[in-house]
Every structure is written in structure tokens, then in C-alpha cells.
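Blinded run. Sample ID left blank on purpose so nobody reads anything into the name before looking at the predicted structure. Input follows.
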Amino acid sequence: MRKNIEKIIGLTLCVGMLTGCAQTPESSLVKPKGSSAMDAYKEADDSVDMVENNTASDEAAADSNSAASENDNTTDSNNSSSAASAAKTTIRDLINAPQTYKSQVTDDSAKLVVNTDATVEIPAVDKISAISVTPAEVTQDLLDRITDAFFSDATLYTADSYYVQTKSEIKEILDGLKEDVANGNLDPNNWGTDDDGNYIYDIYADIEYWESEYETAPEAKTLVEGRPVAGVASQASDGQIMEENSFSGVAVMNDGSKYYYKTYSSGSDTLAVRIKKTAKAGGEALQTIQAGLIIQTATVSRNPQRNPSAFHLRMPKNWYRKK
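Blinded prediction complete.
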């Protein structure tokens, strides 16, 4: 009997010990007391929150990745379509330019018909770069650098002094004109007549003009050296300014070749520079004269029929007369 009682007591103690060692629940309705216990509790709660938050984040990330994957598939599909579309988008497509251009233009009299049949060439690109620029100020330094770049070893003379005609040159012209009149040749240039039957070229008016020029012409040329000067303007006979930064001259090179040299600013031309060769090495005048170049560069000929390769100075008065 005594042994049974001892067994019962021993069993009771074992059960009590096991109960005292049981694990504390993760979440308790009654919080342990004491500062150290409270700190431990907070850390445990924070850990649980972090786990829960991480779990939620993982789930959100998974959802996001799933959505992103779907978007990627959609984007890839759109990109493929865009790429195919971009391949067809060129400057030609954007402006709807044709491969060829054809037209026919007829003047009012139907005597002149212009037919056009041209290939329209446009770079096969989808964009063209554009650079915005503004006009630079025309300075003396700029004019000097241009002049020196072409004529650093040349002697520059003003056009007025170089092309001025002497009394002997004008007398030769007058003698030729008067000879034509004496021979009854009132149209030495073969310009014909106007609608009223009058000669287009008025030889008598031309004689009158050259006689007036003879009175003030110098016996010999006095060459004046010059260079372009910033701000210098040329004026018309009525005083109206025609060009800014204006200079007209002749550059005589060391080998004797000559160049007509002109600078000016007018309208949309911030600075225009024109250079034309007028004489070969040794000073031999070139035979080809282009319209637009001042005609004093041409060789003076008394009669173009006798010297067809030379340019005749007996032109309508508004062609050559200096104001």
C-alpha cells in the first residue's frame, strides 16, 4: 500500500513539472510583467509583423510580376507593331512625296511650253537634323580675313579707278559711232526695231552720251588701291542706299592674272562675296563674259561685227553708265 502511495505522489510531481515547462503561446491575452519581459514581447510582436508584412509584400510582388509579365507580353506585341510601322515612316512618307514629279507649264502666248519629268530624291531616313543659326555681324576683321584668304599677295584697286575710260579710249568709241552714221549703219549691233519700227539702239543718243563723257574723262588712269571697308554703303543717283559693306575692285596677282572682286550686304544677303577671273596670267583678257558682271571688264571693241569675240561697250545707256 505504501508503495502505491509513493507511485501516485511521484506521478503527480512529474505531471506538475511537465506542466511548468510547457511552451508559452506566441500570442498571449495577458502580457508578462516587468521591463525586460515587455521588451521581449515587443520584439516578438515586431518579428510577427515583419513576417506578416514580408508575406504580404511577397504576395504583392508576385501579383505585380504576374501583371508585369502580362504587360511585357502586350508591350512586346505593341513594340513589334511599332517597329513594323516605324520601318515604313520616312521623310518621304511623312510629307507624302511622290517618286517622280511631272508638270507642264505654258505661257499666255502658248509659244513656250515647259515639260518637267524629274525623279524626286529624298534621303531614306525618318528624321533630319536642323540647326538654327542667326546672321553674324559683318565686321572689319571678317572682311579682312576674306580678302586676305584670296588676295593676300595681290594688289587691289578700286573698280572706279581701274575701269575709268580715258579721253583716248572714248575718242576711239566716238570715231567708230560717227563712222557708222556716215555709212548709214544706224544699227551696228543688229538689235533690230521695236513694235513701232524704231531702232532699239539709239546711236545718236549714244554719241551724245560719249561726247559728254569725253569732256570729263582723264588723259590717263590714276589707279587707286582699296579694300572692303565695313559699313561703307553704295548709293543710287537719287541718294537711296543700295548696298551696305559695298566694295568693287580688281585684284592684280603677281603673275599678272586679274580678278573682279565685290562684297556687299543687301536684303537677305548678310554678306555676299563675288570673285571672277577676268584675265589670265600675263594679263591676257578672258574672252568669256557672263551677264551680270560689270561690263567694263570686257575688251573695248569699236565694232562687234569686226571682232565678234569681244564684248561691245555700245549698249543701252542704262547698261553701262555709271551714276
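Unblinding after everyone has recorded impressions. Confidence is low (pLDDT under 50) at residues 11-57, 289-323.
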